[in-house]
Write a structure and sequence with these properties.
Layout (H helix, E strand, L loop, with lengths): L2 E7 L7 E7 L23 E2 L6 E4 L3 E7 L15 E9 L13 E8 L23 E8 L5 E11 L2 E6 L5 E5 L17 E4 L20 E6 L6 E5 L9 E6 L13 E7 L15 E2 L3 E4 L26 E7 L2 E6 L15 E6 L4 E8 L12 E6 L5 E5 L6 E5 L5 E7 L14 E6 L5 E6 L4 E6 L5
Antiparallel strand pairs: 1-2, 2-22, 3-4, 4-26, 5-29, 6-7, 7-8, 8-9, 10-11, 11-12, 13-14, 14-15, 15-16, 16-18, 17-22, 19-20, 20-21, 21-22, 23-24, 24-25, 25-26, 27-28, 28-29
Protein name: DUF839 domain-containing protein
Pfam families: PhoX (PF05787)
Keywords: Signal
């Protein structure tokens, strides 16, 4: 049944924060492994201020700083880059004699760096791993033992730009996405940008510095795979009207199976008949049937950005701030982080979560966030999202004021999981860096999350299955 919950948080010296949402939250977990778990409770209790001023967590939880901006990379390739963003964790085979895993699994952690030009700490250029020597973005790869001690840390790909989010592939590689549209010759770049790259993290899964051009050149955010057929869904976080599109990529299958992304394929954009802007939908549960997919005229956007291209009669459907994207059960879910009429959207909202069912060609608005006038500041702009082993959802907040990782249980309760304590402003005007890249270890024992500024990667452990 539809639910509405509100949770207000406050602490001395910080701006109040809140989350308000409406919708049938349980829909997000239908058919997933998490749905078979406990479903979560009302959370883990109040957040305890961190005496070290880094990360506030509930009692019983602990954090470890795995990597921090400006520290030396363990590979010796340079310094840990700035702007830690999207991230994913993959199982790794323990290396004999390394670490203190005591039989617990090792983990590969692949981390994006959303560096543009003039970043504080660029991703170091490395031979055979650099796409454009003028690009300052890319990925780094950490190898962790079972106790979350860092065994290795190195560059995964370099010479890209504005690597925001992405997603894991079905064959255990990471797709890193450039959230930019700069072309060669602009801003000093030597190659076109705005592509997806495939990043491997061991000798069996090499990194390719060749962009996956058929998947489109636009301001990419996140990707998610349909495990049944290998179709890839992509979100576009365009910064100006008419804003981004929701895409699907149909890979060629020269050898059957999931096919090969490097073999190319067809890029299509979603058309919701009669809906030009998803922000115009304001009632959770609203459903659209017979969703259409229209082939993109020019996927590499040689002359015109894709969102401005001619999609023929009926046009195409846009949405502001399309960000997180994941597959759950038989559907793909994607986030519109916010919409503002003052910036060109039809209506205002503080975040939407949409569900698309490909078998039924059906699109449904399942969650609508805020605003809530009963508190100082609405918890706004949900960004990265992931399923938690306790049966809930973790949401990274990307808004004003104090920044949180919020948990949402299947029963509709919102609770605080983490709060940033690093003040990057001043005592008079405090400011906290957003969270990004929330993900869980393959064994569910650890939550990994980034603070974007200053770039910091945390491993959080505790009674997750409580």
């Amino acid at each position: 049944m539809p639910t509405t919950r509100r949770l207000a948080l406050a602490r001395t010296g910080a701006v109040g924060a809140a989350v308000a949402f409406s919708g049938a939250l349980s829909e997000l977990f239908t058919g997933t492994a998490a749905a078979q778990a406990t479903g979560g409770s009302a959370g883990y209790g109040p957040l305890v201020p961190d005496p070290d001023g880094l990360l506030d967590l509930p009692e019983g939880f602990r954090y470890k700083v795995l990597s921090a901006e400006g520290d030396r990379l363990r590979s010796g390739e340079g310094k840990v880059p700035s702007n830690c963003d999207g991230m994913s964790a993959f199982p790794a085979r323990p290396r004999h004699g390394k670490g203190h895993g005591h039989g617990k699994g090792h983990t590969w952690l692949v981390r994006n760096h959303e560096n543009r030009k003039d970043s504080r700490v660029p991703v170091p250029t490395v031979e055979r791993l650099t796409y454009d020597p003028e690009g300052e973005g890319g990925c780094t790869v950490l190898e962790l033992d079972g106790d979350n001690d860092v065994l290795t840390e190195r560059v995964g790909i370099a010479g890209t730009s504005t690597n925001c989010a992405g997603g894991p592939s079905l064959w255990d590689t990471w797709l890193t996405c450039e959230e930019t549209e700069f072309k060669a010759g602009e801003e000093g770049y030597t190659k076109d940008h705005g592509f997806i790259f495939e990043v491997g993290f061991d000798n069996r899964r090499p990194t390719s510095v060749e962009p996956l051009k058929d998947m489109g050149r636009f301001q990419h955010e996140a990707v998610a795979f349909d495990p049944h057929n290998g179709v890839v869904y992509e979100t576009e976080d365009a910064f100006d009207a008419p804003f981004g599109l929701f895409y699907r990529f149909l890979p060629r299958k020269p050898r059957g199976g999931y096919g090969s992304l490097h073999a190319g394929g067809t890029l299509q954009a979603m058309r919701v008949p009669g809906v030009a802007d998803l922000s115009s939908v304001t009632e959770t549960g609203t459903t659209f049937e017979n969703i259409e997919w229209v082939e993109v005229p020019d996927p590499v956007a040689k002359e015109t950005p894709i969102r401005f291209q001619d999609f023929g009669k009926g046009g195409i459907t846009h949405a502001q701030k399309l960000e997180g994207c994941y597959w759950g059960g038989s559907c793909v879910y994607f986030v519109s982080s916010y919409a503002r009429s003052s910036e060109g959207s039809q209506r205002d909202h503080f975040g939407q979560i949409w569900r698309y069912d490909p078998r039924r060609r059906r699109l449904t608005l399942v969650i609508l966030f805020g605003p809530d006038t009963d508190v100082q500041l609405p918890g706004e702009e949900p960004d990265n999202i992931c399923l938690a082993p306790s049966g809930g959802l973790m949401v990274c907040e990307d808004g004003a004021g104090a920044q949180h990782v919020f948990g949402l249980t299947r029963r509709g309760t919102v609770y605080p999981m983490a709060r940033g304590a690093q003040n990057i402003g001043t005592p008079e005007e405090p400011e906290w860096g957003e969270f990004a890249g929330v993900t869980f270890a393959p064994d569910g024992r650890t939550m990994y999350v980034n603070c974007y500024t200053p770039g910091t990667t945390f491993a959080v452990t505790g009674p997750w299955r409580h």
